[in-house]
Amino acid sequence: MNTNYILAKWSVLVFLGLLSSCYCKKATYCSGWDKIEQNSIYGDALKDPENCRSRKGEAYPSDRLKRLRPQLMKMYQGSSRDSRSMKSHIQRPEMTRDQLMNYHVLASQGRIEELSKSIREKRQAEDNSTEATVNSNGTSDASSASSTTPRPQTCVPDNELTPARLCKSTFNTTAPMYGVSLTSGEPVTIVQIFPDLLQQVVFEMCDAKECDVLHGECVQTYVPYLFLVIPLGPVTLTGQDYVLVESGCTCRPKFSRPGSDPNPASIIPSF
């Protein structure tokens, strides 16, 4: 009786221990590690634990990157005088995120002149060591432009308009921690050091599997972005590499010609 009770109790404890270890292991993986698209960026340095794990189960090398911080900052900022002058221009990550979202909205709506103007004003403000183009709530003029510019008028009711895109998608910003190199096709670790060296980007994910109008399937598209990565990339002297980033969702008609999907490498000159 006592032996059976002890065995039963031991079995329950072992089961709970295994269950707990599995839960903890899963909880420490970087966000997005389980995406179906294996080429996708994943992890977010602004939200995830600094030592969250990759798809291979390896912890993000945050301690190693912190030790490399002086060397990396010197590569990007030049001399010590330049470093001191540029340090004052490092803006808050939240401000960068808001500006990226505003720029993406302007670009997706075809408001290129407003986008160019906003970028010029931001650069001019940085050159003058001021924040003239940033309003009191920490967002750029692109935000106010996007909220005050009226929509173009049309004679067709909104509920009868053809959708601007055949495949639904959503976009957001992230400071990705892992991705896939376009040059080698291998997984790479994207350098993220909070708050001095954060590499943020806008990504756009497919929300639908089938097109709204045409008979076909929705396909995730990618564009290459330059990131500082480890191992150091071959594209620039500072160790950057092209990493695939989700850029939208396109409709592939059912009877389309094979190989007609967008090629991310085609937008890189002489790649």
Uncertain segments? 79-86, 130-151, 158-162
Q: How many strand segments?
A: 6
Q: Which percent range describes the beta-strand content? A: 15-25%
CATH topology name of the largest domain, in short, is Cystine Knot Cytokines, subunit B
Please describe what this structure looks like.
The chain has 271 residues and is an alpha+beta fold. It has two domains: 1-27; 31-266, Cystine-knot cytokines (Cystine Knot Cytokines, subunit B, Ribbon), CATH 2.10.90. It is 33% helix and 18% strand. The termini are far apart.
Please sum up the structure shown.
It is built from 6 helices and 6 strands, in the order ααααααββββββ. With 271 residues, the chain is α+β, with helices and mostly antiparallel strands. About 13% of the residues have low confidence.
